[in-house]
Write a structure and sequence with these properties.
By secondary structure, the protein is of the alpha+beta class. Helices cover about 15% and strands about 25% of the residues. The chain contains seven helices and 24 strands. The chain has a six-stranded antiparallel barrel with strand order 9-10-11-16-15-14. α5 packs across α6. The longest helix is centred in the first third of the chain and has 16 residues. The structure holds 2-acetamido-2-deoxy-beta-D-glucopyranose (5 copies). The site of one 2-acetamido-2-deoxy-beta-D-glucopyranose has 4 residues, from β7 and β8. One 2-acetamido-2-deoxy-beta-D-glucopyranose (NAG) binds next to β2.
Amino acid sequence: MTGYRHTIIVYLALSCLTNVLCELNLSEDEPCITNGLNGTCVGIFRCDSAALVYLYANAGYDVVEYNLPELPDICSYKDNEPVVCCTDCGVTKDEYFRDYGVGPLGVLGKKDGSIALSKCFEYFGKLPYPCRGSANFGIKKLWKENKKCHEINYSNALAVGGRDAQRWEFPHVALLGYGDDVESAQWLCGGSVISERFILTAAHCTSTRALGNITFAALGLLKRTDPKKYWKIHKIKSIIIHPEYKAPSKYHDIALLETETEINFGKDLLPACLDINTEFKDGVEASGWGRLGHRQDLADTLQVVYLEEYNKTECAAIYQPHRHLKNGYDHEKQMCFGSHREVIDTCEGDSGGPLQTNKFKCQYSIAGVTSYGKNCGILGSAGVYTRVSYYVPWIESVVWPEETEAKRKKDNLWLDEWLVIRSDVANNGGNFGPAVAQRERPGPDRLRHHEQTADEDRERGAG
Ligand SMILES: *[C@@H]1O[C@H](CO)[C@@H](O)[C@H](O)[C@H]1NC(C)=O
Ligand SMILES: *[C@@H]1O[C@H](CO)[C@@H](O)[C@H](O)[C@H]1NC(C)=O
Ligand SMILES: *[C@@H]1O[C@H](CO)[C@@H](O)[C@H](O)[C@H]1NC(C)=O
Ligand SMILES: *[C@@H]1O[C@H](CO)[C@@H](O)[C@H](O)[C@H]1NC(C)=O
Ligand SMILES: *[C@@H]1O[C@H](CO)[C@@H](O)[C@H](O)[C@H]1NC(C)=O
């Protein structure tokens, strides 16, 4: 923690060296003069204009390039944070931006206590391709002569089209294998990389009667037929199934796979965020290597389909109570997506794979986990997906246990960690090494088995 605070001081101390009027040696709430203007010494987060510049500057945005106002003079330090000579109008005790962070495309987001969101920002800072360039925000200080203070004009419009399409359009997608060795393993489910150690998938994918537990995850690949030597294969160390999942029931169909070795991120291999939204009016994309249609072959190249959100009434009508879905469709924990106009769906083999949004263009967010459906590819039908937002607290507790613990203690761990990562990235241009191939045991018999069987809904993968 102290190390993190250090970063803050380093940044401001550097700006100080180039500034003759550096430290005014005044304590909080004392009057001060900066650039000939009267101000008040306040903690940096009490001074909105300074807090904003500080957040963006520490997120790697160049003060000159983005035409950001200069940081004000520093009065002193308090609790290792700068106290600045603030000329903003209406300075209060509030620390409005204390809980904010800078995310994709310069979007300022409230941390909201969500570890998943803060991790999303953190991983964003590690993207090996530029995304910051299209940031569309502005911070202006406007002098109000009558009030003798600065009003702040902060604007942030979400830019569209952050980056060109890459060969690796879905760098978080995992193909999951079952069996004792890589060569003979069967690759029957999908998943999503969400951290250096964890892959999110469906609970029903974690084992099959015929092949046992999931043993491998292949990452950063595009085609099943790519030679295995190019696959980044990680051995699965442990399988964490949601505690309330009781096969063959369809509820709580979500699980986490911990890899034996750390996943090294790179251009073709990056974690996705967890989407904490509960509505997806703009639709989502599903991707996977599942069957191309009922009774058709498994896809070789990763397939992507655009799907529309079905509302609660529609989903409940399609998925009525039956023995594996005792209370029918559960809108709080599940969601269903499909197409009202075209024959588009996820299919067998897509199970466990992501339903994702791409609001920021640079980085995906996982909205759902492909769970099960009726026969795929029937007009007006829709598949069922585990609703990720509902499970975020559980995922956080497994994937980021320390942060979850720290959050409980109301620590300010997150911002600090993020600042250090940003400064590390700025200092050494990121840290993307090659992945290490690993092996272990193999897996399942069917993919989201969507196969036929009239009245019975089938899972969309191993099982
Ligand atoms: C800062 O102010 C305090 C008292 O207000 C004084 O004792 C101290 O010497 C000052 N330090 C510097 C570096 O001017
Ligand atoms: C700053 O405040 C002092 C005392 O209130 C006043 O005399 C002075 O004119 C002010 N300076 C400016 C630039 O407003
Ligand atoms: C604030 O900035 C925006 C965008 O630059 C501009 O459209 C708007 O007029 C500004 N508001 C004021 C009060 O200057
Ligand atoms: C499969 O994984 C579960 C954990 O989900 C574990 O309890 C079980 O022992 C594993 N089975 C085998 C055969 O390794
Ligand atoms: C759900 O969608 C159906 C069909 O599009 C529509 O008729 C119905 O009004 C919707 N219900 C709600 C609650 O939005």
